[in-house]
Amino acid sequence: MAGKEFNAFEMAQAQFDKVANILNLDEGTRELLRNPLREYHFSIPITMDDGTKKVYKGFRVQHNDSRGPAKGGIRFHPQETVDTVKALATWMTWKCAVVDIPLGGGKGGVICDPHNLSMREQEQICRGWVRQMAKNVGPINDVPAPDVMTNGQHMLWMLDEYETISGGKNPGFITGKPVGMGGSLGRTEATGYGVIYTVREALKDMNIKIEDTTASVQGFGNVSQYAIQLFSQLGGKVICVSSWDQNDQTSYSFKKLEGVNLDELRKITDKFGGIDKAKAKEAGYEVLDGGAWIEQEVNILIPAALENQINSKTVLKIKDSVKIIAEGANGPTTPEADKVIFEKGIWVIPDFLANAGGVTCSYFEQVQCNMNYFWEKDEVLGKLDLKMTSAYSAVSELARKKKLYMRDAAYLIAIQRVAQACKDRGWV
Ligand code: NAD
After folding, report:
1. Cβ(61)–Cβ(107) under 8 Å?
2. Partner of 328 at 20 to 30 A CA spacing, among 242, 291, 389, 415?
């Protein structure tokens, strides 16, 4: 679309339209699912540290709650737009549906830049957001969580404000809280481990032993590190990882043919997931350009950094040895690249299935909070494994049976489940 800015919500609608056509959905259901059920825009007035007043713009979008309370993060970002929030809320609906957890899709945001705000000012924004939304969110209708530039501390301030307004302890109002303050054990590992649970199942289907496989990973943050941890524990070997270098403002890939050493790399990684290239060299890593991770002679590629990384150009660099692409990141593959991947016969585990471990564990956090009884880490991860494995099996079975691309099969299942719930409730 020359001359037109990329609009995430238009992309989310286009993806939906494609599957709605395959499913032959009726007009009413299409109209309902193409758009959010509810969209809130509000102002958050704040007293800044210097005594001046400032008003921030906040949003919450509840795309669909036919299968349960809406679920989704709240982002703080200077370039936040309501269309991005609408797209993300829509994708949350499909993500919760594909892993079959009883939640809908939501997302929220505030146009602000936390880099330029003191902790007190951020606290005021969190509390102000809740004051505006308290009547329309909560454990039985919409459960927020952290997202870009928000964390456990922001969630605790929001919870505190909600409990002050509602007059009681209500930890199931929000997830992503610190462990000991209503958070769940296993949440840190959940997304990366979830990616590998699906990879393990895909390899089983292909009759390939994980011990005989190698992988290359883009990114070295939360998702990547725990994916590497479990993959290595199961016997696989990661030979290349890449990360962003804050000083050089570019990315590098780090290669070790005998396998990267996770503990060693963690020691030389900054808090943003950037690996120190001088120290990596000393530790025997070959330092390559940032794009090299995708052109390695491996069996599995795990993009776990950013969107649009596997595109019409980079897809051509993928070696024939690659059998699986497991999308840890959100939106790492463009539609043009999808076509090439499909033709090459590479098995894709699409983002909203592969990285659904995070939201699944957030759901477990909510369940534990509602019971006021917290599980051991093994129990959390065991339940996560079951959910991810059965979600993966349902999608891969459908893809094989109907000879569909995995992404389309995942969308088909998710949209069908939500459409059915809307129908059963008599909405359409
Ligand atoms: P993170 O901030 O912890 O790590 C991001 C990593 O990517 C860092 O190592 C950074 O150096 C690297 N990176 C950034 N730009 C890069 C580039 N151009 N080339 C190579 N590496 C680069 O983030 P995260 O939580 O691991 O999230 C990664 C992706 O997974 C995002 O797309 C996120 O939306 C998605 N995701 C995360 C979760 C979760 O629970 N953390 C859940 C679902 C989806």
Report:
1. yes
2. 415
Query: Residue 111 domain-assigned?
Result: yes
The one catalytic residue in 71, 86, 95, 107 is 107
Q: What does the chain come to in residues?
A: 428
Q: Model pTM greater than 0.70?
A: yes
Distance CA 240, CA 314 (A): 16
Gap between the Cα atoms of 119 and 140, Å rounded: 30
Q: pLDDT of 167-211, one tens digit each?
A: 999 999 999 999 999 999 999 999 999 999 999 999 999 999 999
CATH number at residue 226: 3.40.50.720
Q: Is 163 in the same domain as 193?
A: no
- Is the residue at 127 inside a domain? yes
**148-152, 174-178, 353-357: which range is least confident on average?**
148-152
Q: pLDDT tens across 311-323, in order?
A: 999 999 999 999 9
End-to-end CA distance of the chain: 33
Residue 363: name the closest of 222, 88, 172 by CA: 172
Please give the distance, rounded to the nearest whole angstrom, from the Cα atom of residue 329 to the centre of ligand 1. Answer: 6
The CATH number of the domain where 113 resides is what? 3.40.50.10860
**What's the one-letter identity of residue 355?**
N
- Check if 107 is active-site: yes
Q: Which atom of ligand 1 is nearest to the CA of 307?
A: 32
Q: Residue 17 carries which side chain, given as an amino acid letter? A: D
- In angstroms, the CA 160 to CA 199 distance is 39
Task: Give yes or no for residue 220 CB within 6 A of ligand 1.
Answer: yes
pLDDT, residue 6, reads: 64
**Statement to judge: residues 76 and 215 lie in one domain:** no
Task: Decide if 132 contacts 98 (C-beta within 8 A).
Answer: no
Structural domain that includes position 159: 36-174
Per residue in 234-250, pLDDT (tens digit) is: 999 999 999 999 899 99
